[in-house]
Specification:
This protein is α/β, with parallel strands linked by helices and 203 residues long. The chain has helices at residues 3-10, 21-33, 49-55, 71-80, 92-100, 112-120, 131-134, 136-144, 163-168, 178-181, 186-201; strands at residues 12-16, 38-42, 62-66, 84-86, 105-109, 126-128, 152-154, 174-176. It has a single domain (3-201), classed as Alpha-Beta Barrel (TIM Barrel). 47% of the residues lie in helices and 16% in strands. The two termini are 24 Å apart.
């Protein structure tokens, strides 16, 4: 499946931060057991690139590489098999790099102007961060009211208990991070993932 379509269809991107590759892989596999299928491995630390490579061996999931601000790190992630490059900022140079490599690029915005400019640049999914700090669901609604064409994926402070509110408000997907794994055993991570998936079914 096209990775952008996978994000649209699955609605949840599990955003994983870790100190080393093994930890990231274990968290992702625990979430897979719970039914999640799309992952953003945050690789601003180059040491996490092997986690992307390991997870990309599983063709039943979509692995994106996040936290990328340089073309060098993007190239490393692409070489490891990442199917989408996610940046915490919106910069034209990285957009052009991804276009040249024919790989989807998700840029991050916070303001209406940034969101509009990202849309004009034909970015397929625009990450809205930090969603909680910027005003939560109400801020998403404020952006979409005059610009309903925006394909927004809010992230940052969103939990497994409130993420469906963002989907109901018009988000095409959501990024959920620590709520899935903070202070949790691998078994608990699986249960949290199952709970999140179950919330999608009753959205």
């Amino acid at each position: 499946m096209n990775p952008v379509e996978s994000i649209y269809n699955n609605k949840i991107i599990a955003v994983i931060r870790a100190e080393e590759p093994k930890e990231a892989v274990e968290k992702a596999k625990a979430m897979m057991e719970g039914g999640l299928r799309v992952f953003e491995i945050t690789v601003e630390k180059g040491s996490l690139i092997p986690a992307v490579e390991e997870l990309c061996k599983n063709k039943n999931i979509t692995v994106t590489a996040g936290g990328i601000i340089t073309s060098m790190r993007a190239q490393e992630a692409i070489n490891a098999g990442a199917r989408v490059i996610v940046s915490p900022v919106f910069q034209i140079s990285l957009l052009k790099f991804c276009a040249g490599n024919k790989i989807p690029h998700i840029a991050t915005v916070s303001t209406a102007n940034e969101a509009y400019n990202a849309w004009k640049s034909r970015i397929p999914i625009i990450k809205l961060f930090p969603a909680k700090s910027m005003g939560q669901v109400e801020y998403l609604e404020d952006l979409l009211r005059p610009m309903p064409f925006l394909k927004l994926m809010p992230s940052g402070g969103i939990t497994i208990d409130d993420f469906t509110d963002y989907l109901k408000a018009g988000a095409i997907a959501v990024g959920i991070g620590r709520s899935l794994y903070k202070d949790a055993s691998l078994k608990e991570i699986t249960e949290r993932a199952k709970y999140a998936v179950s919330q999608l079914k009753i959205k």
